[in-house]
Amino acid sequence: MGVELATTSDPKKNELIPSQGAVGRQPYYRESSMSVLSRVFSTVPQLGVVSVKRGLGFNVRLIILFSALTLALTAIVIITWEQLLRPPYFAWVERNYPGAENADYRNKLEQRVEHVFISMTVDVIVVSILLAIVGRKQRRLIAATEQLAHNEKIATLGRVAAQVAHEVRNPLAGLLLYSEHLKGKLDGKVPSADTQLIDKIIATINHLAATTEQILNYARPVTLALKTVDLNDVARDVVQLLSTEISAHNIETVLEFENSPVTGMLDEASIRATTLNLVLNAVQAMPNGGRLTLSTGRDGRKIWMVIKDAGAGMSPERIKQIFEPFNTTKSRGLGLGMPYAQKIIQQHGGRIIVQSRQGNGTQVKIELPADERSLS
Cα dihedral angle (224, 376, 230, 367), rounded to 10 degrees? Predict the structure, then answer.
């Protein structure tokens, strides 16, 4: 072979090694065929393990790994050059610079191209690997930072809303009591129109009380009472509960359930409330009718439920906002349904995935841990 990798840390001690390639090739230093990263890593042990850890913050194992990787890549590139690329290249040089008078120039050209090719190829590959690793770590860091900021925002909104709701709930209870007392006092003594006005006041207070309770329920920590729950039963019961509203919207319901029970250790009340909310969202997304599809299944150690509608769909920007509290496009509602659903699913150790495209409806998938006993 025309290249040898042996070298010393002192450039003055490097020997001149005659090339064993084509006749007449000039000698060159062993060190020149090493890649830049190889030479950098080869000096690291001189710094000492302590200085590496404290001064530069390098991970020793990572340095060893990339040193080995660089050497392995160098060997592969050398073999590739020697076996595949050098013969046609040397033949090209021989054709373009023939004769004994060009022998010295041919030798220099062959050596320089060989050294540049090996060094640059190894460097490009290693740097590409490094950039890929750094890019992946950076994407993970950005995602974690965004998730942390999102969680902090939700927590802050929840605390503020809970405080406001708590301050409002007691006065609302008093207003409701006074209104009902007033209605009882005036019953039969005033025209029916005035009685109806009091009824409207009571209805408004009840609506505000329900809204306040919804905010408090969202902000309140959830204590899970886990037991074996079948997602098939949950989905079937929710559809039956909303059958009147589904029929009123002229919606066709398709149930695609797993034949066997899809069970997990879940809090039945919160999972039913979450499913009810998601199915209700799907129904409300199709005011002019359409198809509502509920499917369940098992995937290894996960169980899942998919709720799919044929509504107008959502834009990518809107999808990013659906888990933010009090962010809603509906004329009625607080925008707490999806944040509450995400909160419940995450507390179960699962995740909720939303896929939607404008004009093609929306699909919401819930993934939850399966019941370990059902896997055995």
Answer: 70
